[in-house]
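Need a sequence for this fold. Nothing fancy.
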C-alpha cells in the first residue's frame, strides 16, 4: 500500500489538513473549525472534532476509504501550543512518525517551501521566526499583547486610540482616526471607546481588525496614521533583523516572507520592505505556500524525504 503523509495547520479560526503521497503530490485538502485550545469546557471535544473533520475532508478528496487513519508521517502545528495535543492525536490516528509543533514553524516552512529563511507574522500580534541551513531556529517578539506584539493589529489600534485620547485631552494633534474609530464601534467619544475595549464585547482580534482604518486614514493623507504605520513597519523590520543576526552571519541571500493582515497595508508593506532590504542579502517576498503545506513538507522531512510539493492548493484564511 502506498505511503500517505499528513500535514495540519491548527489555528484560532480554522483548521486545515493536507494529504500527500510519497512523490510530493498533494492528494486532498480538508477544513475544520478552530482547535487551538484544549483546556476549558468542551475544549477536548472541539479539538477532536476539528482535527477529525479536516482530515476526513482531505481523505475524501484524496479518494481514500472514509475510515483511513494510517499515516507514514505527520506534522501538525498549533497556535495554542503543542504540549496538550499529542495524546489526543494518537487517539485518532496511527502515525509512524509524528511531530506536534508550533504554527510559526509550519508557516515558515510553507512560506519558504522548506528552504532557510525568515517569516514576519503581523496579524493580531506579531513575531519573527527563522531557520538556517543547519536547522537552527530563532525567534524575536511574540510576547503577547501586554508585553509585546509591536506592529501587530492590536498594537496599531491601541496606538490609534492613544493618539485620539491625547487630542481629546488637549495634548495631541487632531486626527481623522477619531471619527473613523468612533463610527466603526458606535462609541460616543474616545473615553467611552477606551472603556468598551476593556470589556469582553471587544475581543482582541476584533480590536485588531480596526487597524485597517489606520491604513484608510493614511491613504487619505492623515499624518498621525502615516506615522503609526511607519512606526509599525520599523518595529516589524527590527524583529526580522534580530532573527537574521541570530541565524545568518554571512552575506548570502535570506528570503524574508511577510504573513498576516497588517501587511495588506501597501504603505506599511513597502516601508517594511525598504527598511529590511537596506541590509545586503535580505529579500522580502510573499509566501510560496500556506502553513498546511508547510506542515506537509515537515511530515516529509520527518520521513527523510526532501520533496517539492506538486499542485499545492491555495490556502485561504
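Here you go.
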Amino acid at each position: 500500500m502506498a505511503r500517505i503523509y499528513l500535514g495540519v495547520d491548527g489555528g484560532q479560526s480554522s483548521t486545515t489538513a493536507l494529504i500527500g503521497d510519497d512523490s510530493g503530490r498533494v492528494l486532498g485538502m480538508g477544513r475544520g473549525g478552530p482547535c487551538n485550545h484544549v483546556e476549558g469546557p468542551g475544549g477536548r471535544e472541539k479539538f477532536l472534532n476539528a482535527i477529525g473533520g479536516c482530515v476526513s475532508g482531505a481523505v475524501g478528496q484524496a479518494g481514500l476509504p472514509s475510515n483511513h487513519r494510517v499515516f507514514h508521517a505527520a506534522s501538525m502545528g498549533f497556535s495554542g501550543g503543542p504540549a496538550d495535543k499529542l495524546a489526543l492525536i494518537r487517539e485518532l490516528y496511527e502515525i509512524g512518525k509524528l511531530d506536534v509543533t508550533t504554527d510559526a514553524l509550519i508557516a515558515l516552512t510553507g512560506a519558504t517551501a522548506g528552504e532557510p529563511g525568515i517569516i514576519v507574522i503581523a496579524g493580531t500580534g506579531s513575531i519573527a521566526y527563522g531557520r538556517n541551513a543547519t536547522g537552527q531556529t530563532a525567534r524575536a517578539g511574540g510576547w503577547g499583547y501586554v508585553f509585546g506584539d509591536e506592529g501587530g493589529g492590536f498594537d496599531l489600534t491601541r496606538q490609534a486610540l492613544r493618539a485620539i485620547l491625547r487630542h481629546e485631552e488637549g495634548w495631541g494633534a487632531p486626527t481623522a482616526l477619531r471619527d473613523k474609530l468612533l463610527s466603526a464601534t458606535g462609541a460616543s467619544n474616545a473615553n467611552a471607546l477606551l472603556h468598551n475595549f476593556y470589556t469582553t464585547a471587544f475581543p482582541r482580534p476584533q480590536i485588531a481588525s480596526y487597524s485597517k482604518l489606520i491604513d484608510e486614514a493614511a491613504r487619505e493623507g492623515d499624518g498621525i496614521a502615516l506615522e503609526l504605520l511607519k512606526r509599525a513597519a520599523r518595529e516589524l523590520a527590527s524583529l526580522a533583523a534580530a532573527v537574521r543576526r541570530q541565524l545568518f552571519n554571512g552575506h548570502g541571500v535570506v528570503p524574508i516572507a511577510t504573513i498576516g493582515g497588517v501587511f495588506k497595508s501597501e504603505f506599511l508593506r513597502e516601508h517594511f520592505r525598504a527598511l529590511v532590504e537596506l541590509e545586503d542579502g535580505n529579500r522580502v517576498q510573499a509566501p510560496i505556500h500556506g502553513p498546511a503545506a508547510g506542515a506537509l513538507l515537515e511530515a516529509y522531512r520527518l520521513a527523510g524525504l526532501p520533496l517539492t510539493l506538486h499542485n499545492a492548493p491555495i490556502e485561504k484564511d
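For context: Residues 115-287 form a domain with the Nucleotidyltransferase; domain 5 fold (CATH 3.30.420.40).
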